Amino acid sequence: MFILLSHFLGVDTPAFAGGPSLTISPIKEIGKGGSSNSYTLAFPNHLGTHIDAPLHFDPLGKPLSAYDLEDLVFTRPVLLDIPKEDSELIRRDDLQAEREPISKADLLLLRTGFEQFRETDPVRYSTRNPGLSAEAAAYISQKLPGLRGIVLDTISASAVQHREEGRRAHTTLLSSRNFFIIEDAALSRYPGGVERILAFPLFVVGVDSAPCTLVAEAHSSRLAGHIQRR
């Protein structure tokens, strides 16, 4: 069974800090006499469910196109519920409390619950999002060496109201290593019995990050790697 953990891209997709979203411009349309339907799509590369590669914050880091598909398959995912309110940060203590189970993960999915506002209050979702603190990023880098990526149900690992903190967190996670940050994911859909997580980005040569299709492969006979918090 495969479960989509990505949001669809659309012209109303919320963007970080209220930035530009997707625009769709027709090249030709059957309804207007064209031989077929064809469109130009224009959007920021950090729009929607997307994956950051090291080049995003490390000038010597790899772009997404430098990775093989095998690098984007995760076989030990663990979901951690860490409820957060507007502009709150995920702290070191939130992770340290669950060090033993998450130490076995190669992908850590951080579910804050803020995804609930993505459709009901997109302005709130895109401007008041929780984020990752620099101290939490340092903990991941130093204490979880087997981790190859994180996933968040927020528009970014950077809280809009704490941008410098977010920049430090990104730099810590992405510098001088192979690591991925997947943001704006649909973790409310996370199923039980997850065996693998697969990330299929849009591979654009030389680009740091891109929208991706994030898929969970689940088996009903197994329990999910899921730690319920508070």
Task: Report on the architecture of this protein.
The protein is α/β, with parallel strands linked by helices and 230 residues long. The protein has one domain (2-6, 45-227): Glucose Oxidase, domain 1, CATH 3.50.30. The protein has six helices and 14 strands. The chain has helices at 92-96, 99-102, 117-120, 122-127, 134-143, 163-174, and strands at residues 2-4, 23-28, 38-42, 50-52, 73-74, 77-81, 89-90, 107-111, 131-132, 149-152, 180-183, 194-201, 209-218, 226-227. Strand 10 (149-152), helix 6 (163-174) and strand 11 (180-183) form a beta-alpha-beta unit. It is globular and about 60 Å long. The mean pLDDT is 95.
Instruction: State which percent range the strand residues make up.
Output: 25-35%
Give the termini separation. 29 Å
Helical content class: 10-25%
- CATH topology (fold) name: Glucose Oxidase, domain 1
Q: Major sheet: size, sense and barrel closure?
A: 10 strands, mixed
Mean pLDDT: 95
**Whole-number count of domains:** 1
Order of helices and strands, N to C? EEEEEEEHHEHHEHEHEEEE
The general outline is: globular
Name given to the CATH homologous superfamily: Putative cyclase
